[in-house]
Q: What sequence folds into this?
């Protein structure tokens, strides 16, 4: 009988320990979820801050290049009527700087450091309109620069960002 009582007490203690362990693991799991949510919120804030900074840099670039700004913000028909102006104005407008912003966006986006969907909300329309203007003049220029520089990766991020933007655009239509 004493042996049975000892086994019963041992089993009860083991169940009690299992219950305590379960409660502790639940508490730890909830802490991890809370911390994970906090980290995600911080990451989202950093991403938003970064996109805002890039936006401010782009706006400053646009202010320094009024003619380029007018062309970028013009309607598709106006771009088409102006003809293939980008190649002619590329150096004058310091368009390489403008493209480097988008190259940076792609690099951070593919590493999930910023949200490409949010970028689309900020600049998708303008980015797509510049890329597609004059029968994709920019795309042809990038290909020519790649050949000239013998660098197949030159502005690869710009090209990838364009592809991602077209996917988002189609999905949202």
A:
């Amino acid at each position: 009988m004493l042996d049975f009582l000892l086994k019963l007490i041992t089993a009860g203690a083991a169940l009690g320990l299992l219950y305590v362990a379960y409660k502790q693991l639940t508490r730890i799991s909830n802490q991890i979820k809370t911390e994970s949510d906090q980290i995600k919120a911080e990451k989202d804030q950093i991403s938003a801050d970064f996109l805002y900074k890039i936006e401010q840099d782009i706006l400053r670039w646009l202010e320094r290049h009024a003619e380029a700004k007018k062309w970028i913000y013009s309607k598709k028909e106006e771009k088409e009527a102006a003809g293939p102006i980008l190649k002619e104005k590329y150096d004058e407008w310091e368009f390489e700087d403008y493209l480097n912003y988008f190259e940076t966006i792609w690099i951070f986006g593919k590493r999930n450091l910023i949200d490409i969907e949010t970028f689309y909300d900020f600049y998708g329309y303008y980015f797509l309109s510049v890329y597609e203007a004059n029968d994709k003049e920019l795309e042809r220029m990038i290909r020519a620069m790649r050949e000239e520089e013998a660098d197949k990766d030159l502005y690869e991020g710009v090209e990838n960002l364009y592809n991602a933007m077209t996917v988002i655009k189609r999905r949202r239509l």
Summary: The two ends are 77 Å apart (CA to CA). Residues 143 and 149 are 10 Å apart (CA to CA). The helical segments are 2-64, 66-72, 76-82, 86-89, 95-110, 116-149, 156-172.
